[in-house]
């Protein structure tokens, strides 16, 4: 009998060692949470004849714990709501968890005794499952707490449990490190894409072109706000260079060492805006095959440029407002709160006050964005900069196209000054590019402006008329832009930089009637 018992004991130990060795080999190859769960299920079944009750993982703050994995089949008799169970958020102060953290080895909780002492929800759950004891163990790597593991059984071998726990601890730490590496890799890939877009699409301005009064006001405001963390709202027509101003503010801030992230709110489909801004977890929705970082996380410790903010749908505005206010977010399909330090620069060509009044833009978001507004003037309001901008673009497209144009002819400059530029600087750049390509010698003699329509022909073709006719049309144009206001703040006299009485006299002399400008 002694020999039989000894042989059985040896056979049992050999079996345990074989299972542990197999578990070690499986753990060594684990790269994902799913692989680890399968390995844990197998070893608990083969060695301890039990199932995993719960494995809670420590959050980044070291205080909270989130459910990481559990075996649903263990709780079939208990008839519980698994989604509700998975949503339970614990921390290190929860009584059972606190006891496990303080102990160097697994703690055994007798279910009946716990029900008599506290009648807690956990003890009631353990009772429903039908085992005598609950086992809680702290999983550590070095001095760092990784997770807590809970098992339910009538009796377990503590030494085997300790060996299993140490290997699971290392596996979880490896998975977390691997996930962080994947996130860093993804972030680098995103940044690489942004850098390529930046090189391809953004003007290579060493400084912004323009020295007139209007631009001097813009430069002054930029210098006041650049080094702060305040939110900036850039207003202005399409094509005035709002993104260029945003980049200049970012490059003059203490965040300049990190890449500014741009989001075009008008280009994002409404159903993907949340995922684009805040990211998503794997399996959050159909097609979410991997975890993805959102633009806010990519812009952490940097600047997020929200272009065309006026185009954002109302439902997305609510979530954006919360993130701006709280400085924290949750990925789509995620449960963890992620802190972010992001400086917001928004831009729009819409009148947001009118959008608020019409109910298309949230007033609370408008006030949150409108901390430091900067109005970017249209090209029509700074015609003194047209020649400098034109020369800059000629030099740029000279280089790009192998041309050798060294000056712009007076006739071409006259064309540029007489055109109204509805497309602003962007239109000027594209027209100069086309004109450079059409030029065959060293002088740009003509700018290929769009064909005139009946509506703007009288205003734009003024240089084919007499001096008196030119003056008359110029005054009418100024009056139209000022909505018929002659003198006072914002009136035509102020725009033309002449006294109001002088303008009245000229209008009388040139027979300009109200019907022509109002």
TrEMBL record:
**Single GO term (MF):** sequence-specific DNA binding
Q: Mind telling me which Pfam families this protein's record contains? A: AAA_lid_14 (PF25601), HTH_8 (PF02954), Sigma54_activat (PF00158)
Superkingdom of origin organism:
Bacteria
Q: Name one GO biological process term.
A: regulation of DNA-templated transcription
Q: Which residues form the Sigma-54 factor interaction domain?
A: 208-437
Under the heading Gene3D superfamilies, the entry gives:
1.10.8.60, 3.30.450.40, Homeodomain-like (1.10.10.60), P-loop containing nucleotide triphosphate hydrolases (3.40.50.300)
Q: Which InterPro entries match?
A: AAA+_ATPase (IPR003593), AAA_lid_NorR (IPR058031), GAF-like_dom_sf (IPR029016), Homeodomain-like_sf (IPR009057), HTH_Fis (IPR002197), P-loop_NTPase (IPR027417), Sigma_54_int (IPR002078), Sigma_54_int_dom_ATP-bd_1 (IPR025662)
Listed A to Z, the keywords are: ATP-binding, Nucleotide-binding, Transcription, Transcription regulation
Record protein name field = Fis family transcriptional regulator
Q: What is the originating organism of this protein? A: Flavobacterium reichenbachii
Recite the lineage of the species. Bacteria, Pseudomonadati, Bacteroidota, Flavobacteriia, Flavobacteriales
